[in-house]
Amino acid sequence: MAALEWGRKDLPDLQRTVEALTVRAGARVILVGLPPKWNNHLPLIAYQMAQDTSGRALSSWATEQVSKETWAKEVEWIALAHDLSVTYVSLLSTLCDGRSCRVRLDNTVDHLTAWDGIHMTDWGSRLVAPLIYDRL
Hints:
The protein is mostly helical.
């Protein structure tokens, strides 16, 4: 397993890596997409959202705080997986609805999905783990 932020410019190197893994090592390659990229650290975003709710419950989803790069990268990675002929697992399919992304998993801020702008918490990881496991 490798966790890197690849792009189309990396395709030649990735093709060699995938070939080495599949042909020489007999491995199955699964490309796991990126989680949502937040415009700031998610705990800070949740705090600001809580301040803006004026006593109402904190929303479980956010739209404006998700980087627009999130959606562009998803399209790029889907194409990359297609070009490499590997299975693609979209984390956004579980964490987002195409416009908004999940901030938290319950009615408190105890179970946020990310620690910062991109790294998932244990709770966020538990949410997407079955999606990855089902592809193994």
